[in-house]
Design goal:
By secondary structure, the chain is α/β, with parallel strands linked by helices. The chain is built from 11 helices and 12 strands. Helix 3 (about 65-75) runs parallel beside helix 4 (about 95-110), helix 5 (about 130-150) packs parallel to helix 6 and helix 6 (about 170-185) packs across helix 7. It holds the Pfam family AP_endonuc_2.
Length: about 325
């Protein structure tokens, strides 16, 4: 077993150990985040098809944050997501400046633009928590995450909005917006990207109108956006599996939120059925969403030039590299 795979298993174990009440209600059990493909293919930036689609995967930072760039190249990805620190603890060591320099140099060398890189927030965060200690720590962590993005030369940061636990949805939305406004006051430029949720437990953001209500309360609208997760949307009741379903969902998102807020997509099939509210990711074409929806996604002009990130579990012979290759093969131009 090579050092990259050993590091990946360690990080997976760290992620799984974060199981307090807040995490259980906000993270979901289906995200397979820091996977690296078992068998990789040569990554080439120039393609004859799908030139405006930036498909990639959530990769590991084990061994150094710049390693995420190298992994993405090996996978054949044109975008990628990553965590910016440990998923186990609220307190993390400061970002090493030499590592940040290596990361930026690697991005420049391999042609990764910051707009196609989507850092993912810690599952410990619950910016909507009614528990003052959790809210305070989450708000501070959001500031820290945005500061790390700035140090890495990144322009956007994706996170799960939060969960109301034993309070109301409206109060949860107010707290999330409060945390975002506070983080914006403490940092500059980096865009906070809200992820839609599956509606599991007391999570907020499963319905587009909830995302809009958060955005409405954010003072600086230029620094807020949305990442749509296909599994979460399907589990929340948006039927993208049917013919024309992807188009209908995007039309509805445009009406309720506004397409100008759409910053990224997470590409995941779903183990659960439509409207199940379960966050259970499946490999592309192997779940209840089905391959046709992903063909529509990679051929949808409204999704040009934004990161399209895989968070699928993977299986022997069908890891990230193979799934990226499959998605590009579905592109018609």
């Amino acid at each position: 077993m090579g050092p990259r795979k050993r590091g990946e298993r360690k990080r997976k174990a760290e992620e799984n150990s974060a199981q307090d009440e807040e995490v259980a209600d906000t993270s979901g059990a289906g995200k397979s985040s820091e996977r690296s493909a078992g068998k990789v293919v040569s990554g080439k930036k120039s393609r004859t098809k799908g030139g405006k689609k930036y498909i990639g995967a959530h990769v590991s930072i084990s061994g150094g944050i710049w390693k995420a760039v190298e992994d993405s190249v090996e996978l054949g990805g044109r975008s990628f997501a990553l965590f910016l620190g440990s998923q186990r603890t609220w307190q993390r060591p400061a970002l090493d400046q030499s590592a940040a320099v290596k990361f930026q140099k690697a991005c420049a060398q391999h042609g990764f633009d910051p707009t196609h890189i989507l850092p993912h927030g810690s599952y410990l965060m619950n910016c909507g928590s009614p528990k003052q200690d959790v809210f305070t720590k989450s708000q501070a962590m959001l500031v820290d995450e945005l500061s790390r993005c700035s140090a890495l030369g990144l322009t956007q940061f994706n996170f799960h909005p939060g969960a109301s636990i034993d309070s109301s949805t409206e109060k949860c939305i107010e707290r999330i917006a409060q945390a975002i406004n506070h983080a914006h006051n403490q940092t500059s430029a980096v865009i906070t990207v809200l992820e839609n949720m599956s509606g599991q437990g007391s999570t907020v953001g499963g319905q587009f109108n909830e995302l809009k209500r958060i955005i409405d309360r954010v003072r600086d609208k230029t620094r807020v956006g949305v990442c749509l997760d296909t599994c979460h949307a399907f589990a929340a009741g948006y039927d993208i599996s049917k013919a024309g379903g992807v188009k209908s969902m995007l039309d509805q998102f445009d009406q309720e939120v506004g397409l100008h807020y759409l910053r990224a997509f997470h590409l995941n099939d779903s183990k659960g059925i439509l409207g199940c509210h379960l966050d259970r990711h499946e490999d592309i074409g192997c779940g209840n969403i089905g391959i046709s929806a992903f063909r529509d996604i990679v051929n949808e002009p409204r999704l040009d030039n934004i990161p399209l990130i895989l968070e699928t579990p993977g299986r022997p012979g069908f890891e990230y590299a193979e799934q990226i290759k499959l998605l590009y093969s579905l592109c018609e131009d």
